[in-house]
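Deliverable D4.2, example record:
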Amino acid sequence: MAQLTGSVTPWPEDMMKQYKWLDACLQKQPATEVVFQPAWQAYKYMLSGKMYALIGINDQNGRPMLTLKLDPLHSDLLRQQYQDIVPGYYMNKVNWSTVYLDGAVPQDVIEGMVSASHHVVLSSLPKKMQREILESYVT
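Output generated by the structure prediction step:
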């Protein structure tokens, strides 16, 4: 997961290594900030102070999970296609979906969900801020 100074994480080192691709995918999104939330024992991925993703471990079943803010219709479609995508764990069940990372959801689908989640939050920001963020990340 992301390198955070002074943070304690419940993630075993081998599990952290297994999901480095996901952390890289999340941090590749423009203007992403990573915050470790000790109370949740989870990593929050933020855009201008708004969370668009959360990586943690389900405290009921111990499974690693990624929770993303998505368009409700997109969420419904994904939930119908993959049994390892469920309504958001501890989140609004309409706007958030949880993906069990140890399940059968292909990596490219998860990467697409990350991009879509970032876009949902980006599009909720004022137009001027959206332009500034996108212009600063044009390579």
